[in-house]
Amino acid sequence: MTALKISLENGKEQLNKYAIGVSLVVIPQVYIAVFLTKHIVENPSILEILEKIGIVIFIFLSYYFYRESKKSKIKIETTAVKKENAFLAGITLSVLNMFSIPFFCGSVATLDAFKLFSFNSSAVLFFVVGSLIGTFYILYLYGKFAKIIQKKTGELTKDINLILSILTGLVAVFTIIKSLI
Q: Which of 33, 67, 116, 170 has its CA 20 to 30 A from that of 87?
């Protein structure tokens, strides 16, 4: 959403600076994710603990989003991003994004499960570079299609918390069932 806002308010040049800032932070995040995934793969007991923690987190998230969906109007508050701070905003928001490392861990674990990933240095380097390019490109596309996305999401944003509540609830239920089987 921040990428869309920067693109709409400050233009594509500022969006590119924002995307570069975000992409630079992706590099250490991907390396951390690969390192964690390697240790999780080598120690399956860690995965069981993480699944139990994940169930609790998804139940809380489901409840939170459900409560938010019951409020009469959704307010999306964003801070104004000055043109000269777009790069810094990208770095800051990317550092604060707590979901990127688990996302990359999941991606590496999935690739490893299908024998499409190796933990050697060249495979890790290609994964990092691919993640960097992919992150920049998706943010670039958000900016390129910002006006279209803004028009299309108008209807979705009023129900987004209910949708997120259902999705996180389903993930929690699926994880509970998986752990019992």
A: 33
